[in-house]
Structures are given as C-alpha cells and as structure tokens.
C-alpha cells in the first residue's frame, strides 16, 4: 500500500529529525495506538527507545503477560514492566464515583510512570499514541471550556510532569489508518485488530466499588464474551465488545437452592468514530451461549442482560 508506505517513510524521517541523537520513552498499554507508536519510533531510532508497561491490576485476563510476550516477539527494544497492581487497588479502595476512579488511576499512573522513566538515563522525549480524534476533542469549541462527559485522564499531565518533549507520530491519523500502518509494520494481526480498551480498564466496568474478587468475576465473564464472539466469527465486525459487572444482587435458582447473586451486562457496539454508536445485533444463538456459559462457569453471577442502548444518549462504557 503506497499511501501507508509513504506515511511510514515520512514519519520515520520526522522522528529522526525531531529526536536527533536523543532517547525516547514510550508507554505501552497493550493496545494498537501505543504499539504502532513504539514500532514507528523503533524503526526510526532503534535501541534508543525504551518502553514502559504499567500493570495496574485493571487489565483483562492474562493481558499483562500477553503484552510482554508480544513485545518480546516483535521488538528488540528495552522494556520495563512495572507491577503496580497493589498500589492501584489500594488507592481505589472504597471509591465508587467513576470520575474519582479515573482521577486516581490517572494520578497513580503518572507517579508510577515518572518513577520508572527517571531510572532510564538521558531521556528527553516522550512518545504518545495520540490520534487525530483525541487532538480535536481536546480543543475547546469556540474558545470556551470543554465539557467533560468523561475525563480521559490516562495521558493528561504526563509530559508536563516529566519535562519531556512530546513525540506524537499518529496525531493526524484515524484508528483505521493506524491499524493499516500496524499491519504494514508487521505487527501481529490480533494486536492490530484489537478492540479499544480504556485507560482506567476494568475499573470503569465494575459499577461502584472495585475489589479483587469483583475483578476476578469480571475477568472470567469478559473472557467468555470474547471467546464466544470470536467463535461466532464476529470479533472483527464489532467495534467494541465487553462485559460489565453490576454488583447488585438478584434472585435465582441453582438446583434446588435459591441464589442471590450479581448481574453481568454484555455490551457490543458498532461505530467508526466512537462518538456515536449503535448496539450491535449479536445473533440470539451467540447471546444464548454467552449467557449459558457465564451463569454456569462464573461463580457469583446468576443473571446476564444485554445492553441495547445507542450512543447518544447512552455512552459505550457504563461509567
Ligand atoms: P464512551 O463510554 O465515552 O467511550 O462512549 C468512548 C470510547 O472511549 C473509551 N473510553 C476511555 N478511554 N480512558 C480511555 O482511555 C477513559 O477514561 C475512557 N472512557 C471511555 C471507551 O472504551 C470507548 O472506546
């Protein structure tokens, strides 16, 4: 694809021009944007790139392990893995307000990242996978204040805190273009085609307070949702699909016994820009196997519901 090839070539030149002989640090999230950013920078400056991956304890099943494995298989760059699960979960204890969760996670991320980045000597640049829609969303309309529906705190504040110059090779691209570049750069298909995952992770998919036990339940349910969607050949047709834990108790029967347990909501959306979205019509048969498996395999859940709301007025995430 000549258009993507020429983008890569131009981008590599731009990075070299901006960075010179300097060193760059890049945060990896496990998603497409940060991986493509890292791959472009790696192509430009090789081992003068260091990557930092923070395991905040809010990732999906085995996600942290997969990120590390994929990285090692695809890059020769320096990778720092910070296991900070306890720190994040400790700070989130007793917190149920969604915006408070985001702020705490954002703050903690900056602290952990900064601490790790300072261990790497001679860094002057910070690479971020900012996309064009992120750029436009942060420009206030008519010069007025931006209305915060949900604060996307995972990146804000980091460059200022570190005093690094920003490198943002994707800032004029949309998600589908980033995916094409990722493919062109030879990144694995599963990584390039991954559904977006929010910075605050599973914390905003557990309504209310977060606990280790709730995270376990949600991870198991989420894994089943994704497995069944893949089995039905739908993963690449759906823009984003996941489970949400509703920690309210409802009555059920298990064998001869009455149960009183939690609800899992299944959310699947169709969208190109994530600003508006329609709920995806998952075939009944697949919904049936998702529900059957979750109720039978995940202890602590006795009911599964399907979210049939469009954005707007609902949002994609529940918090
Ligand atoms: P909503 O729920 O606002 O989501 O319709 C739109 C898209 O943004 C993602 N999202 C986030 N991503 N930090 C992120 O990095 C956040 O705090 C956050 N909140 C929502 C969401 O997953 C969807 O793709």
Structural overview:
The structure is a single chain. The chain has helices at residues 2-19, 32-45, 63-74, 85-92, 98-117, 132-137, 158-162, 175-184, 189-192, 212-231, 284-297; strands spanning 23-28, 49-55, 78-83, 123-127, 165-167, 240-254, 257-270, 278-279, 301-306. It is of the alpha/beta class and 319 residues long. It has 2 domains: 2-192, HUPs (Rossmann fold, 3-Layer(aba) Sandwich); 206-306, 2-Layer Sandwich (GMP Synthetase, Chain A, domain 3). It has a 5-stranded parallel beta sheet with strand order 3-2-1-4-5, with helices on both faces. Strands 6, 7, 8 and 9 form a 4-stranded mixed beta sheet that branches. Strand 6 and strand 7 form a beta hairpin. Helix 4 packs antiparallel against helix 5. It is globular, with a radius of gyration of 20 Å. It starts with a helix and ends in a 13-residue tail after the last strand. Mean pLDDT is 92; it is low at 143-149. Residues 102, 150, 152, 154, 196, 198-200, 240, 274, 311, 315-317 line the site of xanthosine-5'-monophosphate. Keywords: Aminotransferase, ATP-binding, Glutamine amidotransferase, GMP biosynthesis, Ligase, Nucleotide-binding, Purine biosynthesis, Transferase. GO terms for molecular function: ATP binding; GMP synthase activity; transaminase activity. ATP binds at residues 29-35.
Present the secondary structure layout.
Elements: H1 2-19, E1 23-28, H2 32-45, E2 49-55, H3 63-74, E3 78-83, H4 85-92, H5 98-117, E4 123-127, H6 132-137, H7 158-162, E5 165-167, H8 175-184, H9 189-192, H10 212-231, E6 240-254, E7 257-270, E8 278-279, H11 284-297, E9 301-306
Parallel strand pairs: 1-2, 1-4, 2-3, 4-5, 7-9
Antiparallel strand pairs: 6-7, 7-8
This protein binds xanthosine-5'-monophosphate.
Xanthosine-5'-monophosphate binds at residues 102, 150, 152, 154, 196, 198-200, 240, 274, 311, 315-317.
